[in-house]
Design a protein that fits this description.
This protein has six helices and five strands; from the N terminus they run H-H-H-E-E-E-H-E-E-H-H. The chain is of the alpha+beta class. The radius of gyration is 15 Å and the shape is globular.
């Protein structure tokens, strides 16, 4: 079994502090593909998850650093919810999943990898995409490279 993406995640240097999502919000458009960013507007950014649970695993992130819904202003909350709806439509159009898991992990014990900055996960699902690999070997089978998934999704986020 080979899951090379896990080692990058395991060995990632987190000692520098800072916030991955705050860094992403300032990414120049020319670097979006490299950073897996699909869209940025006044309140929200959308990007691919670098360590996905399934091909097309997206993150919708408020631009302002807040760890929970209570930390968002009304306009930011509204923009986040609208972005979730729009992102879901674009994900369905581009990937044609049979279902989608959509959710927030609030706090480390709830599974948040970056608990300090609120973000939503949209994970496209297809019948048969879950098999014995994650159960027996903690390995996920990705049918497509992240760069190819970015290429598939990017045209749907141009507007």
């Amino acid at each position: 079994m080979w899951a090379p993406w896990r080692m990058e995640y395991i060995l990632a240097d987190t000692s520098a502090g800072g916030c991955l999502f705050c860094d992403l919000r300032a990414t120049p458009r020319a670097a979006w593909r490299e950073k897996l960013v699909l869209a940025v507007d006044e309140y929200v950014l959308v990007c691919l998850n670098r360590y996905p649970f399934a091909a097309g695993h997206l993150l919708v992130v408020p631009r302002r650093h807040a760890g929970d819904f209570a930390g968002l202003e009304a306009a930011e909350y509204d923009a986040l919810m609208r972005a979730l709806r729009t992102t879901l439509a674009r994900l369905r159009e581009a990937m044609r999943p049979e279902g989608v898991n959509l959710g927030f992990n609030l706090g480390k014990v709830a599974g948040a990898g970056i608990a300090e900055h609120l973000h939503a996960h949209l994970v496209p699902r297809w019948g048969g995409d879950t098999n014995f690999m994650p159960v027996l070997a903690d390995v996920r089978v990705m049918p497509e490279y992240l760069d190819a998934t970015w290429e598939r999704l990017a045209p749907h986020f141009d507007a």
